[in-house]
Amino acid sequence: YLGIFTWSDEDVLEKVIVEDGIEIIDDYAFCGADMEKIELPNTIKTIGWNAFTESNLEEISIPESVTHIGAYAFWDCRKLKKVYISKGLEELGTMKTYMSSEEKKFIGIFAGCYNLESLVVDEDNPYYMSYENSLYTADGKELIEYNPSMTELKLLPQTKIIGTEAFLRTMYGDSKIITLPDGITELGYRSFACCRDLTEFNMPDTVVSLKELAFESCESLKSLKISKNLEEIGQDSFYECNSLQRLEIPDKVKSLGYFKFGGCKYVYIGSGFCEEMDAGLWDWFTSDGRYVEIS
After folding, report:
1. What is the band of 281 on the pLDDT scale with cuts at 50, 70, 90?
2. Which of 63, 163, 194, 250 lies 20 to 30 Å from 208 when distance is taken between CA atoms?
3. Does pLDDT of 192 surpass 50?
4. Whole-model pTM?
5. How far is it, in rounded angstroms, from Cα 152 to Cα 129?
6. Over 80: is that where the pLDDT of 13 sits?
7. Which residues of 195-232 are buried (b: 16+ CB within 10 A; e: fewer)?
8. 97: exposed, middle or buried (C-beta count within 10 Å: 0-12, 13-18, 19+)?
9. CA distance 142 to 161
């Protein structure tokens, strides 16, 4: 068991070698560590959440013994360039929150790693695969985490789901525009959260589900094309999207969560219904015979 270290400004290490026999790297164990490399023994089973957050790590090889990596394990490792994940990894991204002692599903493993050049998963891993240095489920149907250093969108053709926090804090080239290809059916929980420079988003008509907080804190987002076949909009989907002035909610939406419109001023529900937001709070109103609650 390897617990939390306290690092001072004087603790500058070229390489850390973890002793053989250690099985757990605890949450926040190397948070802020000024080290370039770390050598992990083939006895490590778990890497805790935020284990290497904001460290100066430049490369890491995850040994075959590791079966679990916690959420945000390499959050904001701005110097991280190379990551190798072995065939033993089974689970990614769970952590406990201050609101609950139960573990919740988050991802964000490499969020803020803007210099990540190489992310490779062993081809014999039965659970995950890599493509264009991004992380997917083994069948390629769900994008687990998009490489935050990418400057143009490259997805596997068979991708159906943009997973939980897949694009969290992604810097997307100079244009700051994302156009998803046809075939995507679901945008997951916080899938594009905190993409603060994103200005335009085009959703294909194959998308039917938009989960909670999908565009949370996309504060520069001005233009959003929504799928005509969208059926579900989750809670707070557009929270703090303060540059977004207008939304058009398609007729097929059956489920509409609470508090989802952030700073948006105009919302169209169904065919042509329009009202002006008043401090973001609305009572019940009717559109095409359907009641929709906006709070």
Report:
1. very low
2. 194
3. yes
4. 0.86
5. 20
6. no
7. beebbebebbebbbbbbbbbbbbbbebeebebbebbeb
8. exposed
9. 5
Placement of tokens 């948070």 in the chain:
31
Q: Which residues pair with 276 in a beta bridge?
A: 266
For 158, left (φ over 0), alpha (ψ -120 to 50), or beta? alpha
pLDDT the model gives residue 150: 86
What pLDDT score was predicted for residue 77? 96
Return the structure tokens found at 14. 């070229």
From the CA atom positions of the chain, what is the Rg in Å?
21
